[in-house]
Write a structure and sequence with these properties.
Length: 400
């Protein structure tokens, strides 16, 4: 990789140095074009003068010959300019082609897996391909105009080894999302659970469509016939404040000011969450979670590598990070099978796991008992290192 970077820097410096010189091909093109432009202005002035003199003079033949000489000079200047620009453009094109050829040859001189410090084992490639396929199924399916969903299901199975039962669910989800974006709410309305928040937001979106079309009477009747019954049936009276601005606009305003696109995206997001939960699909793909976690953690890896090189020490524990990385909530979740080694109980949201300074993990209840609610230091139950409540950090497991 370092050789590739050196080659890239050397070849780029050649182009940069050539472009910075006064006689570089592109600068010559610019200079010749500026000169040609000045000659055009001069010749135009001469032509204008000759035409005026020809109209006022009796010696029209002599002035016509002069005008012809000016025209011939114009053609000559054009041919010289065109030849120079073509020649210098060809030289610049050859320089860039040489740069691309050298760099591309260097890239294919070696296998990336041979220079990557943490190469994937051969048996992991299958899982990586499946993760890519699931990522495509989750995020890109609705943007692909598919007439027959079975073609996409077969493609994902043959190329990425995605289970057809899973990809079929994503294809069906994408079809409903496409219809939502096109303004057709019927399929999503038929799918959603009766009394859900999604149903309410779909009612609101449909009323906005009526209002946008200019039919206030139809919008008003739809709100009165759908929303009150929904609130009475579901007991969700806290949603009334969302209906009031819509009713007020029906009465007062002549034009709609609602952001229909934002309401539509809200419905799509709610539908996606409900659909994934009902079909036991991950709302975020594992590839997205891994890449995002890596981007956030990258700065800590750089700092750790610098410290490790300066102190000449290495981390000896496998499959465990030598530092804690704070990730956002949507990237973390309590592990469903983590059992506190002290109380022999599963950790929960109310009793989360905590890491001691020695990196051993116990539950919050155990931590409070051992530290007597943070009033004293205590010895780790698994090693002789002393710990304190203030030095323990809450643990978040990445949910893949």
């Amino acid at each position: 990789m370092s050789e590739l970077l050196k080659t890239l820097e050397a070849e780029f410096s050649k182009i940069k140095d050539a472009e910075s010189m006064s006689d570089s091909p592109l600068k010559k093109c610019l200079t010749e074009t500026s000169e040609f432009k000045m000659n055009l202005k001069k010749l135009r002035a001469h032509l204008t003068k000759q035409i005026q003199e020809e109209a006022d003079s009796e010696n029209a033949d002599k002035l016509a010959r002069k005008r012809q000489l000016i025209i011939e000079k114009l053609h000559k200047n054009y041919r010289q300019w065109e030849h120079g620009v073509r020649k210098q453009g060809k030289v610049a094109f050859q320089q860039h082609n040489k740069f691309n050829k050298v760099i591309l040859n260097k890239i294919y001189d070696f296998d990336l897996d041979d220079v990557y410090v943490n190469p994937l084992p051969p048996n992991a490639r299958e899982y990586v391909e499946q993760a890519v396929g699931l990522h495509i199924s989750r995020y890109n399916m609705s943007s692909v105009p598919v007439e027959d969903g079975s073609d996409m299901v077969d493609y994902l199975e043959n190329v990425y080894k995605v289970d057809p039962l899973i990809s079929k669910k994503f294809v069906d989800m994408a079809q409903i999302i496409r219809e939502l974006r096109a303004g057709n709410l019927e399929s999503c309305m038929a799918w959603c659970t009766e009394g859900s928040l999604l149903e309410f937001e779909l009612h609101m979106l449909k009323a906005m469509y009526f209002l946008q079309s200019g039919d206030k009477i139809k919008a008003f009747n739809y709100v009165l016939n759908s929303i009150p019954g929904f609130l009475k049936k579901t007991k969700k009276h806290h949603l009334r404040h969302k209906v009031a601005p819509l009713l007020a606009q029906l009465v007062v305003c002549s034009q709609t000011t609602f952001d229909i696109s934002n309401q539509r995206e809200k419905c799509i997001n709610l539908f996606t969450q409900d659909y994934c939960a009902r079909n036991k699909l991950s709302f975020n793909s594992s590839l997205f979670l891994i890449v995002m976690s890596g981007i956030i953690s990258f700065q800590f890896f750089i700092k750790y590598r610098t410290i490790r090189a300066a102190s000449h020490v290495d981390w000896s524990t496998e499959n465990e990070l030598p530092f804690n990385v704070k990730l956002p909530d949507f990237l973390t979740k309590f592990h469903p099978i983590f059992i506190c080694p002290v109380l022999k109980e599963e950790t929960t949201t109310e009793n989360p796991p905590y890491a001691l300074p020695c990196h051993h993990i116990i539950s919050k209840v155990s931590l409070d008992k051992l530290s007597k609610n943070g009033t004293c230091n205590f010895k780790c139950p698994y090693c002789p290192i002393m710990a304190a409540r203030s030095r323990a950090e809450k643990v978040s497991f990445v949910f893949l």
